[in-house]
Design brief:
This protein has 379 residues and is mainly alpha-helical. The chain is 63% helix and 6% strand. The protein has 15 helices and six strands. The strands form three sheets. Strands 1-5 form a two-stranded antiparallel ribbon.
Length: 379
């Protein structure tokens, strides 16, 4: 009981600190906007889940499953970077040194950080669920709200994914060479591979599902297979395929009624496997967590002159030309509201010390993403 109270106190303190940040509000706004985009207007020719110019009626099951699936895939990337600072914050603020003097065990600490990471991400998903219910009524194709059909995809598809993300973030913070940029890049590679595996987990054809869906990380093949079976039953003469992502199609869009995934015990057990994997990773992190001992952990990399540190030092020593726009331009901006001033100050702190070529490269990648994703009909 004493350990449970300690766990609750650690989680509560962590959540209070995180939910007071502007990044939390910004992430909420972005996720709600993505939920809005996930349910295109009935009159438009846009689809989020495309079965060959066929989609389900915007009832609770279809809207909830679409947004849950996209949330599982999308939030698992920025969500990792949002929560991958729990241990570092304790180290930086000195709380870690206080914890090191207590009898708190390493497994309990890493488990508490995993739980706090998970609850933080669940708080974002809770707002997304409310937005999904609102989008069903805004689109107006089905005015009967089925709470279970709406919430079940989030419970069994999205939450196990976020639990794993929360645990992996703690593991990356516990391993010295994965705490910094190398770990950030490594997670992006893992996330990309998980997306590719999930999207290839089931094969479709004119006769319905050819290969039984696998229990992928995001639950994409389970939801996609159920949608495909229902669409094939409604349109047996059509050659159906499945595409996930915002697309614009040509021709009329036909609709059918889908009542959601039949969450059988086998499917639920498969989704719980990911929760078990997440708990195992949280406990595994305790093996690499050294209770804020300055003689161990991240200092070894710099002392041994690891290749990551040497590469960073060599890049910083390159003779890049300096560019100070403030010496050449005088820009007078209109007064900003309080929120705008705080946001601008946060951006300045975040970008402080970065060379101009880093910002130019990041801007180039953003522009390239917009250009490559543009609608070909608009050109």
């Amino acid at each position: 009981m004493q350990r449970f109270r300690i766990l609750v106190q650690l989680v509560r303190a962590d959540l209070r600190e995180r939910t007071r940040r502007y990044s939390f509000l910004i992430t909420l706004g972005v996720m709600v906007y993505l939920g809005y985009l996930a349910v295109p207007s009935v009159e438009s020719n846009a689809l989020t889940v495309d079965l060959g110019n066929i989609r389900g009626i915007y009832n609770s099951a279809w809207v909830g499953s679409m947004i849950a699936l996209l949330s599982s895939m999308v939030l698992s990337l920025p969500g990792f970077y949002l929560v991958k600072n729990a241990i570092e914050r304790d180290r930086r603020t000195g709380v870690g040194q206080i914890i090191a003097t207590t009898p708190l065990s390493r497994p309990l600490y890493t488990l508490s950080k995993t739980v706090s990471n998970f609850i933080f991400l669940v708080a974002i998903i809770a707002i997304v669920v409310a937005a999904a219910a609102g989008m069903q009524f805004i689109r107006g194709e089905s005015m009967r709200l089925d709470p279970w059909a709406l919430v079940a995809p989030f419970l069994f598809s999205t939450l196990p994914t976020l639990m794993l993300v929360a645990a992996v973030a703690v593991l990356f913070e516990s391993i010295s060479f994965l705490r910094g940029g190398f770990g950030n890049i490594g997670y992006f590679v893992l996330w990309t591979a998980a997306i590719a595996i999930s999207m290839s987990g089931v094969s479709f054809g004119s006769q319905g599902v050819i290969q039984e869906p696998v229990n992928d990380l995001f639950g994409a093949s389970i939801i996609g297979a159920s949608m495909h079976r229902a669409a094939h039953a409604a349109f047996p003469e059509r050659n159906l395929d499945l595409g996930i992502g915002y697309t614009r199609v040509e021709g009329a869009i036909q609709t059918f009624r889908w009542e959601g995934v039949s969450w059988t015990p086998d499917i639920l057990l498969g989704r719980l496997v990911w929760v078990g994997v997440a708990l195992g990773i949280a406990l595994l992190s305790a093996l690499f967590f050294h209770r804020f001992d300055p003689a161990r952990g991240g200092g070894r990399v710099s002392e041994r002159g690891g290749w990551v540190a040497r590469l960073s030092a060599s890049l910083q020593s390159l003779p890049f030309p300096s560019l100070s726009l403030s010496q050449h331009l005088s820009i007078h901006l209109p007064p900003l509201p309080p929120f705008g001033r705080v946001l601008l100050a946060e951006l300045r702190l975040m970008l402080k010390g970065l060379p101009w070529w880093w910002a130019a490269g990041a801007l180039g990648l953003i522009v390239a993403g917009f250009v490559s994703g543009a609608d070909p009909e608009a050109r």
